[in-house]
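Lecture 7, part B: from sequences to assemblies.

Below are the input chains for today's worked example.
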Amino acid sequence: MTLSLEAVGLTKRFGSFTALDHLSLKLEGAKCVGFLGPNGAGKTTALKMFTDLIFPSEGEAFINGISVQKDRKRALAPCGDLIETPEIYPSLTPREALELSGAVRGMRPDEIASRTKAVLAEVKMTDWVDLKVGRFSKGMKQRVNIAASLLSDPEVVILDEPSTGLDPRGMAEVRNIVRSLKKENRLIFMSSHILSEVVDICDEVALIDHGKLLFYDTLSNVSKRLTSSATSVELAFLGPISDETLASQVASIPGVSGLSRAGPQRARVMITGGAEAQAQVLERLASAHLGLVSFEPSQSALEELYLQEISKGD
Amino acid sequence: MVTATPSVSGPGPTLGHVPSTVAQALLLSRYQLRDYLRSRRFVLMMAIVGVIGAILTFILSYYNGSDTVRGLTSSSDAFYGSFWAGGVTVVIIFSGIIFGGDAIAGEFQNKTGYFLMGLPIRRTSVYVGKFLAAFAASLVAVIVYLAILLANGAVYLGANAFPLALGESFAIALLYLLALLGAVFLFSSMFKNSLYAVLVVAVLFLFGFSLIQGLITALVKIEPWFIITYAQNVISYPFLSTLPAHMSTTTGPRGFTTTTYNPTYAEGFAIMIGYFLLTAVAGLFFFEREEFT
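Predicted structure of the full complex, as structure tokens:
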């Protein structure tokens, strides 16, 4: 069976407000797709319809070709999901919560036991396995939720901002977990508003704003799209650098379309021509022996495209 | 299934056969009951039953020998007709409020629903599972109350402490518990806020229905067959040698008449079964349509 998540004209209206406007999107095969958009763009609304937490005003959502709205039980069977920050019954322990989750999915008791051990170890909750969830912090609860969503080793994983509520270390750990989930036979659909997280983990990205899909493409195509526009790059030098040196040895490099000073030892250049042009400029700067210590594009290609697309709608 | 990392991604369990709706409901009820039994609300319910039992035990002991207590302990029918039939309805109403008041509303407000509803499970299973758990937790409270009464009965009635009528009344009380929980779950399904749900249920069952029943009987002068608390009188019938008149009218000073209604057995059962079925279906209807926004 081909792994797939598909939204067909998915629309959600709350009174006169349209939270999601005829979203049509098909994700197919084993990959990790980032679902991006500013707050209120409709990301969570869409994911909630994929998991039947809310109902579409129009359209339908499918998991592996099965309609979530018509047969939620069969559609959600191969799916692990984490929407917002769910609460677990406070008197249950992580072990019991995962037992419940596994038993509802039809897993065998021995499978539940071994997987519980593995996923709780992965989210670093082994030491709290038999303590009541009601005493946990939000971050600890989120770790248990992540463990629950991975318990059945699902083919399809839907994650709604999974690092929400976690400290920086926890966020990095979640990123590692999601990265480790990327395997041959798994489709991951993860919403986030942290662009670096998406660039770091995902293969493809879908961007929505005001409930509408703006684009869906691979990250490499996103970079290609931006080859014609200029990228801002911050340069840092070992010591102070003169205006004359900048003008004669930096501004004159092919591909540099603009130059401005950002401090005694820093400058900002605009480079046209995408990643290849950036590579050439970097090589020229290095060979000029100017004491270059840092060459940092101020925005990723995704960030630039994100801001471009979002600003169109404003 | 291909594995990538030894911990999270493997060895991947084969996707099990998802249990039936009924099996999932029973499964959920087990975990929900476990949650109830460990919760503060269960401690509160046991405290309420304990206080009722303690007052009863104290009064019987303190006034032992008085004409009133002698009358109440003269037969098992008199004893249980007063203390069981009178007290169990209070226990049932409190347990309904405590275990059922926010059972469904809490899934939305406390976000526990996000954990459950992301699983391959029908909402019917969740509703039925929670209902069964609330019923079982309430049953524990009813049994504890019964145990307190039986202990007192053993002291004052001796060998007559375990009459058959008590068994019949116990069965009727369980039917009343089903009906009451059905109604409580309906109200709980209509709200997404636990506090509102509990408040509405508490006001209705502790005062509201009795008040409406009294007003309807006195002013409109019709039988309040559509009010659930009207049916609770039937719980005491097994202890009565003669059932009360279905309708009796007394004329007071200045010709003012007062009409009193008592349900027949059939009416009482019909009201309880009707309430249970209608409210359970209606509650499920609301729950099926409520969104986790």
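Note for the exam: The longest helix of chain A spans residues 109-122. Keep this in mind when comparing with the next example.
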